[in-house]
Design goal:
The structure holds two protein chains of two kinds. Chain A is α+β, with helices and mostly antiparallel strands. Chain A is built from two helices and nine strands. Chain B has one domain: Cytochrome C Oxidase, Chain A, CATH 1.20.210.10. Chain B is globular, with a radius of gyration of 22 Å. Classes of the chains: A alpha+beta, B mainly alpha.
Chain lengths: ~170, ~500
C-alpha cells in the first residue's frame, strides 16, 4: 500500500535527521578551530550533495513511470465503463454505482457548484484513488477494482459546513 | 544611535507580541478542533469550520507578522527601512484581523483560509454576503499592509545595493564582485522574500477581488481553475515565506553564539536564487489532483518540489550544523530554539517531499498527512525561529535571565510539536481526511493524542510569550528611567 511505503520512507529519513542533529548537538560541547572543520565538511558536502541529487533523480524517474493521469491501454473488447460524476453541496450524482471486479472504470468528475474532492475508500477505509471535482472542468479517475465490497466516496476538498456529510457508497461484485 | 535602535525595537516588539498572542489563541482553536474530531468535545459543525477558518487565517497571518518583525529587525542593520511603513502595516494588520474576526464569528463565515472560488459566494446558505465581504476585504486590507511592507524592503535594498538582483548577490555569482563583498544572509533572504511575497500578494489580491466581485454580483463569474492557481500561488508562497524570513534569525544568531562567521559564499547565493525561483513556481504541487492542469506542469510540480529541498538540505541546514559542530556553543533557550528550528524545518521537509510525489499524492492529498508536515516545519521550524528570536532579543536588550520554567517549556514545546505533527502523520497514513468536523471511531485516537500534545504546546508557547512580555515591561521601565535622566540632564 502506498500509504505504508510513504510512512516508512518518511520515518526512516526523519529518524536520520534526528540522528544527525542529535550527533551535532552532542559534539557541540567540544571546541575546535573552525577552518579545518569547514575544509573537511565542504569536502563531505560535495559527496552528500551528489548523493542527495542522485537519490532524488532515481526516485523521480521511478515514481513518474506510471501516473494516475494516464489513461490505461484497454484490450480489445475490454472498453471501460464511463461513470459521470457530479458533485454538489453536499452529495453526489453518479450515473452508475455498481461495478464488477476486474472491470475497467473511468470516473469523469465535475461539480455543479464549488470545488469538491472525489476520494474512493476501500472497506478498511483506506483511500485508493482521488481527484478534484471542479465546476466547469472534468477530472478523470481510472480504476479497476481488484476486490469485491462496498467502497465509499468521501469529499476531500472543503466545500462548506456540511463537507463531512458528503459521502456515498458504491458496490463492487 | 541607541535611540534609533530602541525606537526600531519598539515596532519590532509590537510585531512579535501581537504575533505571539494571536498564535496562542489560534492554538486553542486548533486543540478544540482536534478534541471535536476525537469525539471528546461536542462542537457543532458550523463552529468547527469557523474555527478552521480562523485557525488557518490567524496562524499564517500572525506568524507572517512576527517573522516580518524578525526580518525588519535584522535587515534594518544593513538598509534604511521606513518606520512609517512598518507602522502602517501593523495598523492594517489589526484592522484586517478585526474584520476577519467579525466576519467569521458574527456572520458565520467559514470558507477556510484558502477561500477556494466560488465557495465565498456559494455557501449553501451557511453565511451571507456581509460575512464573506468582511472576510475578503479584511484579507485584502491585511495583504495591502504586507505588500507595502515588502515594497519598502525592496526599495531600501535597491537603494543600498543597486537592484534586487544584487541583493541576491548575482554580481558575486557572476564573478563581477568578490565573495567577501557579498550581501549578508539577512539581505539575501530579505531580497528573496521581497520578490516572492510581492508576487504572492499580487496574486492573492487578484483572487480576493475576483471573489469579492462574485460575492457582490454572482452573475459575474471567473474561471475556477485560474482562481485555484492564483489562490495556491498566493497561499503557498506567502506561508512558505514565513520560514524564509525566520531563517534570518538563524543566520544572525548562531554566529553570535558560536563566534563563527556565516558568510555568503557563491554556493549560498546560488541556493537562495534557487529558492527564489522554486518558491515562485512549485505551488502546482497543490494541484496534483487536478488532472485538467497541463500534465507537464504537474510533473514539474513534483520535480521542482524535490529540487526545492536541495537549497535548505545542502546549504542552509548543512551550514547551521557545520557552524554548531564542535563550536563550544553556549546553549540557552534562544540558541536551543534556533537550532531546534532548523531541525523542525528539515524534519518537516521529509514528509512534504514524499507528499509532493504524484503517486503518493494520489492517495494522501487532503488527508491529515498535509497538516502533519506543515505543522512540523511551521511550528517546530518557523515559529521556533520566532520564539528563539524573542529570547535572543530579551537577552540582548535587557540581560534578562531565563528560569527552569523556560527550560521545561522548551523541552515540552519540542516534544509536543513532534507529538502533534506525528499524530497528524499517523492520521494521514490512515487516510483520515483533513478539514472534517467529525471522524469515524478508527480515526479518533490520533486526534485525541494530538489535542493532548497541543495542550502542552500552548502552555509552552504561553511561557515563551510571558517571558517576552516580562522583557517588554522591564525594557519600558528602564526606558522611562532613562527618559527621566535625559530630561534632568537637559
Amino acid at each position: 500500500m502506498v500509504q505504508t511505503v510513504a510512512w516508512i520512507v518518511s520515518l526512516f529519513f526523519m529518524l536520520m535527521v534526528v540522528a544527525v542533529f542529535s550527533f551535532v548537538a552532542w559534539k557541540s560541547k567540544e571546541k575546535r578551530e573552525y577552518e579545518p572543520i569547514k575544509k573537511k565538511w565542504y569536502k563531505a558536502r560535495t559527496f552528500y550533495g551528489i548523493t542527495l541529487v542522485s537519490l532524488m533523480l532515481i526516485i523521480t524517474i521511478y515514481t513518474l513511470r506510471e501516473l494516475p493521469y494516464n489513461q490505461p491501454v484497454y484490450g480489445a473488447g475490454n472498453d471501460p465503463t464511463i461513470v459521470d460524476v457530479e458533485a454538489l453541496q453536499f452529495g453526489w450524482n453518479m450515473s452508475q454505482t455498481k461495478f464488477l471486479v476486474g472491470e475497467p472504470v473511468e470516473f469523469h468528475v465535475t461539480s455543479k457548484d464549488v470545488n469538491h474532492g472525489f476520494g474512493i475508500y476501500d472497506e478498511e477505509m483506506n483511500m485508493i484513488a482521488q481527484t478534484q471535482a471542479m465546476p466547469d472542468y472534468t477530472n478523470k479517475v481510472y480504476i479497476t477494482f481488484d476486490e469485491p465490497g462496498t467502497y465509499e466516496i468521501l469529499c476531500l476538498e472543503y466545500c462548506g459546513t456540511a463537507h463531512h456529510l458528503m459521502k456515498t457508497k458504491i458496490e463492487v461484485k | 544611535m541607541e535611540t534609533t535602535m530602541k525606537s526600531r525595537s519598539n515596532l519590532v516588539v509590537s510585531y512579535i507580541t501581537v504575533g505571539g498572542i494571536v498564535i496562542i489563541v489560534m492554538m486553542i482553536f486548533g486543540i478544540l478542533m482536534l478534541l471535536a474530531q476525537g469525539g471528546v468535545l461536542d462542537l457543532p459543525a458550523t463552529s468547527f469550520y469557523q474555527f478552521l477558518t480562523i485557525h488557518g487565517t490567524g496562524m499564517v497571518g500572525a506568524a507572517a507578522l512576527a517573522a516580518a518583525g524578525v526580518m525588519w529587525y535584522f535587515l534594518s542593520h544593513y538598509v534604511d527601512l521606513s518606520k512609517k511603513v512598518m507602522s502602517i502595516n501593523l495598523v492594517l494588520f489589526l484592522v484586517g484581523v478585526v474584520m476577519v474576526i467579525i466576519g467569521v464569528f458574527s456572520f458565520k463565515y467559514a470558507s477556510s483560509w484558502t477561500f477556494l472560488y466560488p465557495l465565498p459566494a456559494l455557501s449553501a446558505s451557511a453565511w451571507g454576503t456581509v460575512g464573506a465581504l468582511l472576510y475578503l476585504f479584511g484579507m485584502l486590507i491585511l495583504g495591502i499592509g504586507f505588500l507595502l511592507f515588502y515594497l519598502d524592503s525592496g526599495r531600501a535594498i535597491i537603494k543600498k545595493y543597486g537592484s534586487l538582483a544584487k541583493g541576491l548577490g548575482w554580481d558575486v555569482i557572476s564573478g563581477k564582485k568578490s565573495e567577501k563583498d557579498a550581501p549578508s544572509g539577512a539581505v539575501v533572504a530579505s531580497t528573496m522574500v521581497t520578490i516572492v511575497n510581492i508576487t504572492a500578494l499580487t496574486a492573492g489580491a487578484t483572487v480576493l477581488i475576483m471573489n469579492i466581485i462574485n460575492v457582490i454580483n454572482p452573475s459575474i463569474t471567473f474561471d475556477p481553475l485560474l482562481a485555484k492557481n492564483l489562490t495556491y500561488a498566493f497561499g503557498h508562497i506567502f506561508a512558505n515565506s514565513i520560514i524564509y524570513m525566520g531563517v534570518i534569525a538563524v543566520y544572525e544568531i548562531l554566529p553570535r553564539y558560536t563566534n563563527r562567521p556565516w558568510k555568503s559564499s557563491k554556493a549560498f547565493l546560488i541556493a537562495w536564487t534557487m529558492s527564489t525561483v522554486f518558491t515562485l513556481i512549485i505551488y502546482t504541487h497543490h494541484l496534483l489532483m487536478d488532472s485538467v492542469m497541463p500534465n507537464w506542469m504537474l510533473i514539474m510540480g513534483q520535480i521542482l518540489s524535490y529540487a526545492n529541498g536541495l537549497p535548505v538540505l545542502v546549504v542552509t541546514a548543512y551550514g547551521a550544523l557545520m557552524i554548531v559542530y564542535k563550536s563550544g556553543i553556549k546553549w540557552d533557550i534562544a540558541s536551543g530554539l534556533i537550532y531546534m528550528s532548523m531541525f523542525g524545518w528539515i524534519v518537516g521537509v521529509v514528509p512534504a517531499i514524499v507528499d509532493a510525489t504524484i503517486v503518493v499524492n494520489h492517495v494522501m492529498h487532503n488527508t491529515k498527512w498535509v497538516p502533519g508536515h506543515f505543522h512540523m516545519y511551521m511550528a517546530l521550524g518557523a515559529c521556533a525561529m520566532i520564539f528563539g528570536f524573542m529570547y535572543f532579543l530579551a537577552k540582548e536588550d535587557s540581560n534578562m535571565k531565563t528560569n527552569m520554567l523556560d527550560k521545561i517549556a522548551f523541552i515540552a514545546f519540542t516534544l509536543s510539536i513532534v507529538g502533534l505533527s506525528g499524530s497528524f502523520l499517523v492520521s494521514g497514513a490512515l487516510s483520515t481526511p483533513r478539514r472534517w468536523a467529525t471522524h469515524i471511531p478508527e480515526w479518533m485516537a490520533p486526534a485525541v493524542f494530538g489535542a493532548v500534545a497541543g495542550v502542552f504546546a500552548v502552555l509552552s508557547v504561553t511561557v515563551f510569550v510571558i517571558h517576552f512580555v516580562r522583557y517588554i515591561n522591564k525594557r519600558n521601565k528602564v526606558g522611562a528611567k532613562e527618559d527621566f535622566k535625559d530630561k534632568k540632564l537637559a
